[in-house]
Specification:
CATH superfamily of the largest domain: FAD/NAD(P)-binding domain
Shape: globular
Number of helices: 10
CATH architecture of the largest domain: 3-Layer(bba) Sandwich
Strand content: 25-35%
CATH topology of the largest domain: FAD/NAD(P)-binding domain
Strand order of the largest sheet: 6-7-5-15-16-17-14-18
Bound molecules: flavin-adenine dinucleotide
Oligomer: single chain
Structural class: alpha+beta
Length: 366
């Protein structure tokens, strides 16, 4: 625990963690300087932007518990309360920033054993879990009338939500600039305890926080990038009220509805640090699976294809490492929006001498 608040903090990386921490620390009265290697408003996939811009923004503790563990689930449950509380601190906007209509998991008739397996795995990670409801064809139709009628079974996870993430990152960026924070875009940095090194030389701070995601790989040898590809489509032919996951023996696809008739379809998960554009194979898999959710997607227009790398440690779990003058936060993998509230609150509690947050045991690395 740091006894006195640091007066000056440098944050390296203005992706998800960097922006959230910069915002909250500046609000706590600390002088923050935020360094970003790329643009502060990266608008195109070509701009080498933060994984936070590529993400679908889902906050899905149950769906993700199946592929991770009970700690990730607990931190995700915390996120469902914390996101609305944070978003309420931003200036009001006409565009909703958080949706909490739950999510739907479906499988084609020949793959319904995947649904049973999903429920079994949930029961294994979270014994006595009651957070989902089995649905029949009619119940699926009531929830999502535009989905193809051939889905006979599904699972409804009522407590899941998603962040309108690009709009959120844009608004948070505006808010950060409005606070007068020193934001240094197009400034790649190296980090050291109490010191930031830019091309122009060294700058000193009471504390440095490393939020560079995969950009920290040179210093964090166990960090790796996991390639993820997404399609963005636009259509008025179909409406979805919530994210829909399609279980399939070879791949899993999700469709996340966003405002203005847009949908994000994702995501591949490939053990490769290749950031090159989406492959034909991935685009075929994503778009043909989308078409099987509803033929109405056939006329959707592809407005973007995006690729990025999820920053992950070997166990795919997040880590907060604390030393004198330097805090390193990384490894949010495919769970950035799910875990950021717990991880950020943990770091804030440490810096601002708040009572120990309940997640510290899970997060601190040595
Ligand atoms: C396809 C895909 C889908 C995803 N979907 C979801 C989802 O639905 N839900 C969910 O919870 N998570 C999702 N994620 C995961 C989420 O995006 C990441 O976990 C999260 O963005 C990690 O946050 P971060 O701040 O650590 O890194 P990032 O968001 O990647 O930010 C790192 C920042 O550091 C900057 N930087 C790098 N090097 C330097 C340097 N030397 N100097 C200065 N700045 C530097 C980068 O430019 C970047 O802006 C998804 C990820 C991908 C790729």
């Amino acid at each position: 625990m740091i006894n006195q608040h640091p007066q000056t903090i440098a944050i390296a990386g203005a992706g998800l963690l960097g922006r959230l921490l910069a915002w909250q620390l500046q609000k706590a009265g600390i002088q923050v300087t935020l360094f970003e290697a790329g643009s502060f408003t990266p608008d195109t996939p070509q701009s080498n932007r933060a994984a936070a811009f590529t993400a679908a923004g889902m906050v899905a503790p149950l769906s993700e518990a199946v592929v991770s563990d009970a700690d990730v689930y607990r931190m995700g449950i915390y996120a469902l309360q914390q996101w609305p509380a944070w978003l309420a601190q931003l200036p009001a906007t006409d565009t909703p920033l958080f949706f909490n209509n739950g999510s739907l998991v479906v499988a084609h008739q020949q793959d319904t054993s995947e649904l049973d397996q999903f429920a079994r795995e949930l029961g294994f990670v979270l014994p006595n879990c009651t957070g989902y409801q089995q649905l029949n064809q009619q119940e699926i139709h009531q929830l999502e009338p535009d989905l193809h009628s051939h889905f006979h079974r599904g699972l409804f996870l009522a407590d899941e939500g998603h962040v309108n993430n690009r709009e959120f990152l844009r608004l948070l960026g505006d808010e950060i600039i409005a606070t007068g924070m020193n934001v240094r875009a197009h400034t790649p940095v190296d980090v050291f305890p109490g010191k930031i090194l830019t091309e122009s030389g060294a700058e000193h701070f009471d504390l440095v926080i490393d939020c560079r995601g995969l950009g920290a790989k040179k210093q964090l040898r166990n960090l790796r990038g996991v390639r993820g590809e997404t399609l963005h489509v636009e259509t008025k032919e179909i409406q979805l009220q919530r994210p829909v996951r399609l279980m399939h023996p070879r791949y899993q696809l999700y469709v996340v509805p966003k405002p203005n008739h847009r949908f994000i379809i994702g995501a591949t998960q490939i053990e490769s640090e290749d950031r090159s554009p989406v492959t034909i194979q991935s685009s075929l898999e994503l778009s043909s699976a989308l078409y099987t959710l509803s033929p109405a997607f056939a006329e959707a227009r592809i407005i973007e294809m995006d690729t990025n790398l999820r920053p992950a440690f070997m166990d795919n779990l997040p880590k907060v490492a604390v030393q004198d003058g330097l805090i390193t936060v990384n490894g949010l993998f495919r769970h950035g929006y799910l875990l950021a509230p717990a991880v950020v609150e943990n770091v804030l509690a440490h810096i601002l001498n708040k009572p120990e947050p309940i997640f510290s045991a899970q997060l601190n690395s040595h």
